[in-house]
Amino acid sequence: MSSAERLVLTDVNDGVLYVTINRAEKRNALSRATLAALRETFAGAAHDVTLHAVVLTGAGERSFAAGGDLREFDALRSEADARALFDHAAATLDAIRAMPVPVIAALNGTALGGGAELAMACDYRLAAAHAAIGFVQATLAITTGFSGAADLFALLGTSRAMRVMAAAQALEPREACALGLIDEVCDEAQPLGERVARFVAPFVERPPHVVRAIKQLANAHRRAAVQAMRDAERDAFAATWTAPEHWALAQKFLDRRRPEAPGASA
Question: Shortest CA distance to 246 belongs to which of 82, 111, 132?
């Protein structure tokens, strides 16, 4: 098994591709290698005309994705480094957005920072009863670093999206569902897989070419909004990432988590 295959696991069942971020010991933190593995997985799956849908989740029950791997990203100090990181992560989210069939994020745990951005790149978000989602980047004095603000603003509108980013809170699933960030929440003790299977059923019941045609319309609608914000979002991230306030807070976070090394919320 290659390193990429170890970071991201895949399985196909009844025309649905299941993609699992496989870093449970790091709370499925999104390192550059993990982002690259996800991009490779989705780019390859885009050519499979037999698929009806994709389900993206994380290993274990603790985290969908804890965010960007801040311990790894700590070495990226220049504005050029920040822009390169943004472009690297955005390319992964773009591969998910461009997937020619619906992509469902199955939130098996917390989706924070970059993990929330990853979930927002999917077409739908379903959550376990104990899950949470949060655009918590502001707690590290930065803005979105993976291009996820475009999805957030498109879904919630300008005013609500700004407030969500400024509040920087991990939202319980039912609160997030009421806000519009999550589509469905499992009942207590209901398996997430059961809820996901029920949700994807309408897509599985249609011929793959019909599902792809429907997704083509969705992608055409979404693409313009994402591209319109790309330069502004990259600039905002680079400016906040290189500011001294960010590094002071990042150091406090890293000091607090030693020797454990989960992902943070870049």
Answer: 82
pLDDT at 224: 87
CB count within 10 Å of CB 11 equals 10
pLDDT reading at 176 higher than 80: yes
Please list, in sequence order, all residues whose beta carbon lies within 8 angstroms of the beta carbon of residue 107, skipping any fewer than 6 positions away.
Answer: 57, 64, 119, 125, 126, 127, 128, 131, 133, 173, 182, 192
Per-residue pLDDT averaged across 226-236, rounded?
95
Distance, in Å, from the CA atom of 207 to the CA atom of 82, rounded to the nearest integer, reads 42
Candidates 10, 12, 11, 80; CA nearest to 21 is 10
List the domain boundaries for the chain.
Answer: 3-188+234-257
What does the DSSP 8-state code read for residue 258?
T
Is the domain 3-188+234-257 a CATH 3.90.226.10 member?
A: yes
pTM over 0.85: yes
Q: How far is CA 68 from CA 16, 111, 136, 161, 188, in A?
A: 27, 11, 11, 20, 29
Contact 28, 47 (CB under 8 A): no
Alpha-carbon distance values, 92 to 88, 138, 177 (Å) = 7, 22, 25
Query: β-strands 8-13, 16-21: how paired?
Result: antiparallel
| Percent of the chain at pLDDT exceeding 70 | 94
